[in-house]
Amino acid sequence: MMKKTGIIFFPAFDWAISATHPEREERLLYTRDQMFEEGILDLPEIEEFSPRLASEHDICRVHFCVPSVSDQVLEAHRIAAGAAMHLGDKIIAKQIKNGFALVRPPGHHAMRVVHGNRGFCNINNEAVLVEYLRRTYGVKKIAIVDTDVHHGDGTQDIFYHDPDVLFISFHQDGRTIYPGTGFTYELGGPGAYASTINIPLPPGVTDAGLHYVMDHLISPILADFQPDFVVNSAGQDNHFTDPLGQMRITAQGYARLTEKLKPDLAVLEGGYAIETALPYVNLAILLALAGKDYSSVLEPEYNPDRFKENPKVTSEIHRVVGELQEIWANRHKADKFALANGAKYYQRTKPIYYDTQFIEEKQIEKVRVCAQCPGYITIDSQAYHPDGKRYHVLAITIPIQACKYCQEEGWDAYEQYKHDYRFNYVYLQDKSTDTFMMYRREERQEFRSDG
Amino acid sequence: MFIGIDVGGTCTDAVLLDGGAVRATAKVETQEDLLISLGDALDNLLKGIPGEKIQRVVFSTTIVTNLIAEKKYDPVGVLLLPGPGRTFMEFRQQDDVFFLTGAIDYRGREIIPLEEAELAKALRWLEDKGYQRVAVIGKFSTRNNAHELRVAQYIKQHHPEWQVEMGHRAGGRLNFPRRITNTVLTCATRDKYHYFANAVRDAMARRDISADVFILKADGGTLPLTVSEQVPVETIFSGPAASTLGVQALTPAGETSLVVDIGGTTTDLALILSGQPLLASRGAKIGDRFTQVRALAVHSVPVGGDSVVERVGKEIIIYSERVGHAYCLGGPLPTPTDALRVMGMTQIGDEDRAREAMVRLGAPVGMGPMEVAHTIVGLVINTVVTEIEQMFVEWEQEPAYRVWEVLQKKKLRPQNVVGVGGGAAGFVPQIAARLGCTPILPPYAPVANAIGAAVARPTLQVNLLADTERQIFIVEEEGYQGKLSGKLDEIGAVELAKSWLMKRAEKMNLLEYVQEIEITNRDVFNIVRDWRTTGRLYHISVQTPRGILGHIGSGGRLMK
């Protein structure tokens, strides 16, 4: 039997960040109109499913929500993440050949620690999916390719030290757009070198330039990495009409990209040209996933003569691709102990800004440089929340591949920090056993959740 | 007194209702000429009752379904304005299509103008091919019909005698391919249906019946006969709706029941959810074409009392086709009905012949007649139960586009399994047992479909879309596109929708049925541009309450 493309369409017609925010009820309305009018859900190649809710535990497998999940996560977020999980189930069970979670709210700016909404995101839909697939089905190697115009800094943060999750993001150069990160030197922690690949591109990239990146960099890297599952963070704001980005990609360009990438699951991220881009780009991506002809999906504003790439842009693309090709080719020469300068722990200090809610988080992340596994991580994080309250938390995460030593030391650290007066909350995430712990020091209350 | 008639594939059933009581029933074999069956049924029913006493006649007919299924309709030339999007080249395979330039977008704005020069070409194409029936359908024409109107006007100008149908009139909802189907089928069947409607009026007149005549629709509502002539496609698949409404009338109000209608070759499954038949989320499918026709959520399983049973090697297999009557009724081949007869679960037909049928199947492989009968009945029940379980999974998978819709989803499971149709008594108790439900075989089960027709009532819907930024509004059912005058808030939008429902009722002469109006959907979208609200989009749906005119008898469990 021919296997279908599964779609979950969840436009959240009754949810918005605020009345005039771009992440609003109206965002997927015209996409819905276009999809319905095209009769696309009647196609024998496509099957529509309804979403389900991600559980609190599914979220705790990835995030440390401060102070707790219910304070940061609304039903709409749980439905968007649950939609990705539900399609993930169907793909693993081989009921469908691939899927498209056409959902909002988006998630790729949500980092491991969540103090509030960043870049319109609260929880990371792709990360929740990835940890769920690894835990439930033992999927080993996963690649996430982020095609949003903004750097997928949340996804990068979560998998920065994980050698089994390859994160590739191309985006408009961080010097010209939110969130201001995603440079070529951000390559992952010492134990996961080159499992993060950032491709910063100058404004003005056209379909031709993008496909150069795809053909000469992304496709070869994926061929080398051999992922068991490919997720596409399918932002649509590289479109030539997007109000936030300055790229010049068309619906055709996105569809061809999808065709080459062949993701198992595409998850909608950003894209705020809700009339001029989204109806056409979403349609084109869906048709491409389903193996249908998308050649007539042309935006009314599209005029092929206007889409000549500036030679300066082209040469910058070639330069960036060349630089990353070399890094990728030499990745095995990098030694994790050398990268960590021989230290036992690799440490990063990160200021994190939550643009939607004006929260400034200070974070110190410390990874154990371990010969056997990616190493457990401790995160010291503090921020003032919009309610004026200051939270200082300590979070420990033990990776799914953890060695015995890292697991034990992680738990020991948790027990010690529970008595540390500096922290209001202490959390522990043991991905190797699928356990989540939370300790509220002031109330001396402990919560545990097991998968 | 009310009359309900269901002209089915094999039988035409009729009932005469007097208040909550069944006064008479009739069952005649359906003839090639549906009007003969209709006349026979009426005569059988009315014996001695004067026609003037009849207040209302509702019938459900397969005429359009059959015309379409047998492709006995008139050829239609199709002019499409597909604009950007899917290519729709596959439509060339089923219709003769001419593509025109011109496009409208989702908010009804023209994005590509019509090319007048192409109209002459299209006209010549129609003339060369000899079409006199033309369907004109544009993508998003329900949001702006200007292109369709212009094309239709051009054709009418040159050929006033041709029949031209437009998409926005035939299929008002979003779904371009389904709108094409609705429009083509409307165009193709309108003349033949008109002929049929005239003959019905004639048959009524000859029996002194001056009552209002209604046609049952697939969603369980009715349409006045004259109105149905504008939308003949709306009359397809009313048979399953008739049975379901019949069960609704024969069971207590408010219960959740699975309706199992076991016919000769198919078993239809439907759900009554807290007393209300469940509607399908998408339009009905006829043959291999999807339409916009609103229908109850009915699943058909290709197995029934007359399905052919054969043995292949050591295996007993049930085929989906019917060759004739059951063997015990003089038919040529063994059927599930013969199995039921042998097991004593029905009294229909000759017991010896039924046993003979089982022996014929079982003897060569050493199976006794009772064993064969059990195997056959087991197979039928397995098929039906598997389908029921699949159906519940599908209902749970119905899409949800709002947070509250996802949160309120719950598992649907029926209390009752209600059997109607010829094979019901034999199979339904076992099906109910497998599902852990109460089996119900209501009185008058063999004519439940006709009862359903008799108690059906008109339902009217209006879907209104208003766009305050562009100052326009649309009434999907009417194909109407108007201008807003001044400000419109949510309450105003609801009132506007209600006023159009009243207008619609008045036009159809159905005002007496509009006592209250339900609001089934009210979505408000702020149009936000550059962090400012520049307008609002209102999507409002209103309807007259769905339901039936009344329950029959105690509406209860007279027989279990």
Tags for this model:
heterodimer; A: 451 residues; alpha/beta; Arginase, Chain A; 2 domains; eight-stranded parallel sheet; seven-stranded mixed sheet; 24% strand; globular; B: 560 residues; Rossmann fold; Nucleotidyltransferase, domain 5; six-stranded mixed sheet; 16 helices; 34% helix; disordered C terminus; histone deacetylase activity (chain A); His_deacetylse_dom (chain A)
Question: How would you describe the overall organization of this protein?
Answer:
The complex is a heterodimer of chains A (451) and B (560). Chain A has twelve helices and 17 strands. Chain A has two domains: 4-332, 3-Layer(aba) Sandwich (Arginase, Chain A); 339-450, no CATH class. With 451 residues, chain A is α/β, with parallel strands linked by helices. The mean pLDDT of chain A is 96. Chain A is 30% helix and 24% strand. Chain B is α/β, with parallel strands linked by helices. Among the domains of chain B are: 77-188, Rossmann fold, CATH 3.40.50; 252-441, 2-Layer Sandwich (Nucleotidyltransferase, domain 5); 460-543, no CATH class. Chain B has 16 helices and 28 strands. In chain B, strands 3-2-1-4-11-12-23 form a seven-stranded mixed β-sheet, with helices on both faces. In chain B, strands 13, 14, 15, 18, 21 and 22 form a six-stranded mixed β-sheet that branches. In chain B, α10 (336-342) packs across α12 (369-396). Residues 555-560 of chain B have low confidence and may be disordered. Classes of the chains: A alpha/beta (451), B alpha/beta (560). Chains A and B meet through α1, α4 and α9 of A and α7, α13, β27 and β28 of B.
